[in-house]
# Entry
Amino acid sequence: MRIDYGVPAHGRGRMSRAGPSIRGRMDPILMTRSFRLRSRSARLTLGERWSSAGGAIAAVVVAWLASALPVRAHGAVVPPEPTASALLAWSFDPLLQIPLLLAAGAYLWAVGRVDALHPSSRVPRSRIVAFLGGIVAIEIALQSGIEAYDTTLFSVHMVQHVLLMMVAAPLLVLGAPITLLLRVASHEQRRRYILPVLHSRVVRAITHPVVAWLLFAGVMWGTHFSAVFDESLENPLIHDLEHLLYLGAALLFWWPAVGVDPTPWRMAYPARILYLFLQMPQNTFLALAIFSASAPLYPHYATLARTWGPTTLADQQAAGAIMWVVGDLVFLVAILGVVLAWMRDEERREERREARVEAQREAIRVRETVLAERLTREAQGSGVER
# Structure
């Protein structure tokens, strides 16, 4: 029997964020300043616009977050059955929002600097979209209505983890933040600070493909089949650390697989395909272990006084199915992406080889022309002498 100590059954120790939806209103002066910033940015170059946009967004959202109250939270009882409006409701936790805002603002500022300094070699827009998409995926996973039910439904919790590890992490890596950092930094900053870190023993150790692969798989198995997972449902600090662990392990895993950023261990395309392919069976086995369990795996979910939704076992099976289907689909898409990148790389290599051959042929033609002209002049000179 569960004894009620006056804390939420579905998230003991979690700060209450329930109650009416209250949103802070923007100050008119702040709105005027934001409008002036946008008007001024319209007259700037594209590179300067990105820098101004990053600063403007940071200023506006930080001020808004400072004046906004939490709009939703877990109460002392199981939340009501989720509806469309409940899932679309949003939390605004400054401890999460401010780092995400700073990351997005810093990235846009760096893009603006690079574009302004190197107008002939701008940051690809696809990378900007990918990085900001990763930020949005984290936001959806941890601040949307998903977060309200992550300690109530295992299937919702699994959606949260899939968003962090299979969506946010690869998108952030596709944004090539390390390449952008190297481009925006000065030569002295790269030499003294950035490159020593990238070439350090610690970074070389944790970014080794074998280590990154094992960390990704180990985190998944270690958390789902240990007391950590159930404890994270009861302790909000452990819950947050678990999310950080998932995102960190996923970033390390996807870094060498995507291959757009420099890494101490560069893998060839065939090795990347094998690297991703071997992750599929362990994901499938873990998902099947959860799906086929004959009893609930986590006491937290089993002892909830929930009167709506699926049974605990059915909810657990849904979570296993989500991990299985979505996880394997993401890996298949990633493998296809690597294959396409490999084909494009081979095409570029062939174009460069053809260009070199054509340049050699042109040089031969020029030498032949020069030789023919010289022989003609010599022949003409011999005829004049005679």
